[in-house]
């Protein structure tokens, strides 16, 4: 589905003839929680003759972050509707403040689904902070405006995204602001694509279809494409991907997308690796029924890598980046791999399988080893890997493991873009608990002990990272999929995490 068109305006917001105009609303804790219109809303507040905040208060507005209050303007300003979005305390310009703006813009645009034109008059400063603040508003608005087309047979007008967004800035002709619009459109398009893939029904997106969809999405972008099918995977020794995929009638795929910067000799080679389990039943170690449908999101990591690569092809950073999407469907059947199997991985290591539900690490071990064989200097991998991540950190904060430098790169990037990831250790005793009697390593704890569950995943994946390669493992089991009601710029379903973190990290690495 198309996303809202985006333009900048610097005319007086009170005079904008749009369907709705979005303003910010602060609460002032030092003044008994009194409401204060945010910068950008001055002319609208003036048109209400001093009654804007008292009227909003009557309607129940408190200025709390993300709160949305609608007010008919009855001719006071050109737009018939005001949407006041809570922004909390007065802004300081910090990363959390930007996240409030991102979420506020998202919540407002989400509340206006079905509108034709919406203007945002949110606080964009007139100083060096302007591009960063504007970026947050644009991303929040475009992502809050996302709608999954879905499979309903009848049209759903109220589910349509906003058609056109106008964002008020001090100077609409400022080239730095114009560059942010171009960037936001690229980034939002790639997040939207990642969300779409996650939201698709798993019968519509089995590995061959997923691979085809990724290839189609990057067609004409200049990215090099390599797709390995079952026979090629077998011949080249991708034992992990083949083992997980062999229980399904839909064969596995490994998709590699490569971006090579033009005219620069890039010393850094970045590999982005994603878990692409299009459905995870658990296999022979089958999962319980409750909630199993959510395992259609078990390809959120690969979806994010595909989305990020599409953005990279358009943003053209001066570093070389390759994406590896390891796709398989984890099914129980007469041909499925089983607990007790010993699997020879791409790098030759032998893994003893204890639980076929720990399939993510099997496909990722191969993909990470392949990335290292290709000469990657950084391996940044994203996966819905463990339920332990959700237990430890909840649904918003990803688990982060890896080498010191790459972990700090991802942590800092995630912080900037509102996709937090929290560093976790890779303890020696966890590795000891994964010794195998008969192979090189056990795929899980050798006594099936779930202690340090998330860490077991990280410790296992480390085995496949070549010496000297900086690597990060981002466990997005929680943040990859938002099952609850929409909030801020997160719609229900796929979130697109960590597309924006990876793009920020690549920006920070150049
Ligand atoms: N895809 C799941 C992890 C998951 C859980 C993602 C909840 C999103 C939400 C993964 O393949 C899995 O089944 N992990 C097992 C590992 C265990 C068998 C070692 C888990 O977390 O229980
Ligand atoms: Mn599993
Ligand atoms: Zn899984």
In short:
The protein is of the alpha/beta class and 510 residues long. It is built from 15 helices and 20 strands.
Roughly how much helix do the residues carry, as a percent range?
25-40%
User: How much β-strand is present in the residues?
Assistant: 15-25%
CATH hierarchy class name of the largest domain: Alpha Beta
Class by SSE composition: alpha/beta
What is the count of β-strands? Answer: 20
What's the shape? Answer: elongated
| CATH topology value of the largest domain | Aminopeptidase
CA(first)-CA(last) distance: 33 Å
How many distinct helices? 15
Radius of gyration: 24 Å
**Major sheet: arrangement of strands:** 8-9-11-10-14-18-15-16
Name the assembly state.
single chain
* Weakly predicted, low-confidence segments: none
Tell me the major beta sheet.
Answer: 8 strands, mixed
- The CATH architecture designation of the largest domain is 3-Layer(aba) Sandwich
The hetero compounds bound to this protein are: ligand BES, manganese (II) ion, zinc ion
CATH H-level superfamily title of the largest domain: Zn peptidases
Average residue-wise pLDDT: 96
**Count of discrete structural domains:** 2
Task: Describe the structure in your own words.
The chain is α/β, with parallel strands linked by helices and 510 residues long. It folds into two domains: 5-175, Leucine Aminopeptidase, subunit E, domain 1, CATH 3.40.220.10; 195-508, Aminopeptidase (3-Layer(aba) Sandwich), CATH 3.40.630. Helix content is 34%, strand content 21%. It has helices spanning 42-47, 52-58, 95-111, 130-144, 175-199, 207-218, 230-235, 239-245, 300-315, 360-373, 387-393, 404-417, 428-432, 453-462, 499-509, and strands at residues 5-9, 20-28, 34-37, 68-72, 81-88, 117-121, 164-168, 224-228, 253-259, 269-280, 320-330, 342-344, 350-352, 378-383, 398-402, 421-423, 441-442, 470-475, 481-482, 493-494. The strands form four sheets. It has an eight-stranded mixed beta sheet, with helices on both faces. Helix 4 links the parallel strand 6 and strand 7. Helix 8 packs antiparallel against helix 10. The radius of gyration is 24 Å and the shape is elongated. The model has no long low-confidence stretch (mean pLDDT 96). Ligand BES binds at residues 280, 298, 355, 357-360, 384-388, 390, 444, 477. Residues 280, 282, 357, 359 line the site of manganese (II) ion.
């Amino acid at each position: 589905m198309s996303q809202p068109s985006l333009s900048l305006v610097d005319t007086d917001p009170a005079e904008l003839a749009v369907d709705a105009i979005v303003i910010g609303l602060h609460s002032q804790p030092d003044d008994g929680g009194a409401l204060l219109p945010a910068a950008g809303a001055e002319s609208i507040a003036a048109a209400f003759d001093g009654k804007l905040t008292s009227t909003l208060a009557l309607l129940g507005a408190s200025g709390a972050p993300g709160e949305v209050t609608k007010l008919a303007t009855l001719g006071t300003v050109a737009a018939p509707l005001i949407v006041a979005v809570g922004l909390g305390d007065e802004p300081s310009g910090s990363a959390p403040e930007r996240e409030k703006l991102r979420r506020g813009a998202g919540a407002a645009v989400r509340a206006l689904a079905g509108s034709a034109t919406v203007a945002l008059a949110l606080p964009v400063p007139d100083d060096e902070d302007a591009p960063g603040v504007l970026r947050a508003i644009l991303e929040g608005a475009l992502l809050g405006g996302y709608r999954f087309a879905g499979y309903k047979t009848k049209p759903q007008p109220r589910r349509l995204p906003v058609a056109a967004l106008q964002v008020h800035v001090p100077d609409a002709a400022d080239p730095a602001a114009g560059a942010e619009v171009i960037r936001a459109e690229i980034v939002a398009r790639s997040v939207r694509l990642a969300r779409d893939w996650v939201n698709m029904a798993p019968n519509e997106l089995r590995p061959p279809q997923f691979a085809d969809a990724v290839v189609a999405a990057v067609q004409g972008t200049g990215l090099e494409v390599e797709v390995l099918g079952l026979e090629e995977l077998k011949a080249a020794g991708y034992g992990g991907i083949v083992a997980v995929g062999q229980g399904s009638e839909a064969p596995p795929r490994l998709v590699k997308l490569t971006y090579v910067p033009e005219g620069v000799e890039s010393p850094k080679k970045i590999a982005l690796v994603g878990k692409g389990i299009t459905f995870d039943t658990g296999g022979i170690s089958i999962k319980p029924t409750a909630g199993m449908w959510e395992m259609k999101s078990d390809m959120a990591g690969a979806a994010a890598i595909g989305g990020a690569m599409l953005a990279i092809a358009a943003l053209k950073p001066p570093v070389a980046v390759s994406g590896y999407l390891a796709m398989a469907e984890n099914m129980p059947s007469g041909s499925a791999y089983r607990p007790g199997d010993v699997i020879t991985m791409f790098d030759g290591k032998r893994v003893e399988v204890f639980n076929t539900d720990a399939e993510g690490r099997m496909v990722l071990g191969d993909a990470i080893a392949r990335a290292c064989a290709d000469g990657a200097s950084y391996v940044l991998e994203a996966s819905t890997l463990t339920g332990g991540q959700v237990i430890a950190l909840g649904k918003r904060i990803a688990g982060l493991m890896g080498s010191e430098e790459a972990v700090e790169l991802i942590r800092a990037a995630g912080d900037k873009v509102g996709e937090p990831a929290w560093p976790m250790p890779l303890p020696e005793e966890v590795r000891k608990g994964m010794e195998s009697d008969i192979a090189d390593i056990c795929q899980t704890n050798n006594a099936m002990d779930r202690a340090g569950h998330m860490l077991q995943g990280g410790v296992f994946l480390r085995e496949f990272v070549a010496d000297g390669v900086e690597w990060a493992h981002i466990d997005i089991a929680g943040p990859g999929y938002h099952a609850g009601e929409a909030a801020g710029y997160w719609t229900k379903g796929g979130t697109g995490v960590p597309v924006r973190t990876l793009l920020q990290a690549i920006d920070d690495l150049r």
